[in-house]
Amino acid sequence: MNAASVTPSDLTITPRDRRFVDKVRPARWWNGGDPVATALYNALSATFPKGEAFFVESVRDFRHDAPPKLSDEIKAFTTQEVIHSREHAAFNRAALDAGYRLQSLEDRVEWRLGLVRNRPPIASLAATMALEHFTAILAHELLADPRHLADAEPEAAALWRWHATEEIEHKGVAYDTWLHATRQWPRGKRWKVKAKVMMLVTRNFLVDRTRGALELLRQDGITGPRAWARLVWFMWVRPGMMRKIFSAWAAFFLPGFHPWNEDDRHLIRDYEAGEDSAFGSAKKVRRAA
């Protein structure tokens, strides 16, 4: 590569084969009884089964000549993403059971992905590289600030925290695959392409997730300026996740950027410590029963 990967040499990408909402089905407004918070997270979840399958395809296309370490990371990335797709498919079925109709959101995702699939494989990899950075910084914010899911139903919150943890863990895989695939490109060309792709991905992400959330709010009878005002406030003001990730998003455009320039594995360790504690508490409850 003529651009350096800074992925930690001791990083281990560990697929955690967990199951969540098949145990306890979330209520209609599972996120703190708030239709707006629920709508945005449901709109995100509606993208994951098809979107993460696309990520897997895009990265695996370049595994054949990848260095051994990167090849192993691609394999682990693939396993994690397949499990994410399975669990969000189950989560989406729970939303359907709660009365939401997700077909228009899923059709929008399929349409977007179809546009990229009609281009050379490097275009799919570039889109994946940009989207993986987007999901990683959202995941970081979700875990760094417990208030985002503080009032969510426990099983749904557990799903989102687990997903966020693994997004951080594999956040460098698509980027390192991109560096390897474009290793013969001049630095200027690589930067121009990745910057253009990130701007396009950002526009589409914001437009489509806003559109999807508004559609779900419409299904709850919340429409017009009221729906827009409540959604914009939630996304950009309080809790304002979109506002809070801006600096991490902007870092993507800096010379020498790499997702692991910020080593946030402490969030993974905190998650795992919390999971161990919760598991121990559950065993004590079962023994007492």
From TrEMBL:
Record has Hydrolase as a keyword: yes
Keyword Hydrolase: yes
InterPro entries per record: UCP07580 (IPR016516)
Pfam families referenced in this protein's UniProt entry, alphabetically: Metal_hydrol (PF10118)
GO terms for MF: hydrolase activity
Keyword terms, alphabetized: Hydrolase
PANTHER family for the chain: METAL-DEPENDENT HYDROLASE (PTHR39456:SF1)
Protein name: Metal-dependent hydrolase
